[in-house]
């Protein structure tokens, strides 16, 4: 199959990511079928996609009259057979559970044409964990998105059994929906940006939990040298401190590394004070006007947050 043969894209799971990816595909001219558990979930997802469209208009990324055409290209159904009919390409955004993903892929393998390419948007699993269970391992790879409102970078990660022509096709498809493609040559626990970001988080947390420097000075250092508007602790607030803690604590337990445990405990102090990050407006910083975005932060004239 060539890129020009791809007409219909099926999105499995119409949650946060499925809505974004589905909209992006329709915005670039593909017919999209959204699949989820029930009509109610799908109706809600369609409403949210329309809102996402309004946001794209407000950012000048699409024109108001384009939104109607985009929405017309998106259908939704809780019936897998209907969703799979004439499918050329699938991207899956189901919950992060390999058994569940495998089960749904197996159903779609039954109903999809032989040509259909399967991709997963999993964040933390690797495709080989459920490649065989998809029933078409050679036509399966990870195609991983970030938040499409703020990023146009995707990772393409094949597993050892992915056919090279499929890797090329997935890459071409991602480019056709306006994405910058980062190709991983082999499976890795963590995509390229995520792997670098988690090292940055880990270094910043180690410095702070060992009392080497304050949260603000660590961010100041990164921001000052890299000319960035935000530092590692500010980014952790955006990601959500419970997410960062869960991952840090998981790896602390798995590796037995005392430094990772200290980093997890450092984060836990904030969670215990109900400082969850941007999501509840209090984390390492207070929102909507975090200290790091105020004048005088870099020069240290602004007082440190308690
Ligand atoms: N949220 C992010 O920032 C992000 C970023 C990149 C990748 N991801 C990955 O994307 C995937 C989805 O994440 P999300 O945040 O969109 O999750 P979400 O919970 O918002 O959406 C999951 C959707 O799957 C549906 N679902 C559950 N079981 C189903 C089934 N058996 N059949 C059909 N639909 C079913 C749910 O109803 C829900 O609508 C995960 O693998 C996650 O790791 C998430």
TrEMBL record:
The record marks 144 as: Important for catalytic activity. Residues 8-184 form the 3-hydroxyacyl-CoA dehydrogenase NAD binding domain. GO terms for biological process: fatty acid metabolic process. Residues 190-287 form the 3-hydroxyacyl-CoA dehydrogenase C-terminal domain. InterPro entries: 3-OHacyl-CoA_DH, 3-OHacyl-CoA_DH_NAD-bd, 3HC_DH_C, 6-PGluconate_DH-like_C_sf, 6PGD_dom2, NAD(P)-bd_dom_sf. Its EC number is 1.1.1.35. This is 3-hydroxyacyl-CoA dehydrogenase. It comes from Desulfomonile tiedjei. It is an enzyme of class 1 (oxidoreductase). Keywords: Oxidoreductase. One of its GO terms (molecular function) is NAD+ binding. It comes from the Bacteria.
């Amino acid at each position: 199959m060539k890129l020009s043969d791809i007409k219909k894209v099926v999105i499995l799971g119409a949650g946060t990511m499925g809505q974004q990816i589905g909209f992006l595909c329709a915005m670039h001219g593909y017919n999209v079928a959204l699949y989820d558990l029930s009509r109610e979930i799908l109706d809600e997802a369609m409403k949210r996609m329309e809102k996402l469209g309004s946001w794209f208009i407000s950012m000048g990324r699409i024109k108001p009259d384009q939104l109607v055409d985009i929405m017309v290209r998106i259908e939704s159904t809780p019936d897998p057979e209907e969703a799979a009919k004439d499918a050329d390409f699938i991207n899956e955004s189901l919950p992060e559970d390999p058994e569940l993903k495998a089960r749904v892929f197996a159903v779609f393998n039954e109903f999809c044409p032989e040509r259909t390419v399967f991709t997963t948007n999993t964040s933390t699993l690797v495709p080989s964990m459920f490649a065989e269970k998809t029933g078409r391992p050679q036509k399966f790879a990870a195609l991983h998105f970030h938040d499409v409102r703020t990023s146009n970078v995707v990772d393409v990660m094949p597993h050892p059994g992915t056919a090279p022509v499929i890797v090329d096709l997935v890459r071409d498809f991602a480019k056709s929906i306006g994405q910058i493609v980062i190709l991983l040559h082999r499976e890795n626990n963590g995509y390229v940006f995520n792997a670098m970001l988690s090292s940055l988080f880990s270094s910043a947390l180690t410095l702070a939990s060992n009392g080497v420097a304050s949260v603000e000075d660590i961010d100041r250092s990164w921001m000052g040298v890299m000319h960035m508007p935000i530092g590692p602790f500010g980014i952790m607030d955006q990601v959500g401190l419970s997410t960062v803690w869960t991952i840090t604590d998981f790896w602390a337990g798995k590796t037995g590394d005392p430094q990772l445990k200290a980093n997890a405990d450092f984060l836990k102090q904030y969670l215990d004070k109900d400082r969850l990050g941007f999501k509840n407006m209090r984390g390492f910083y207070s929102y909507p006007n975090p200290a790091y975005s105020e004048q005088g932060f870099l020069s240290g004239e602004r007082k440190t947050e308690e």
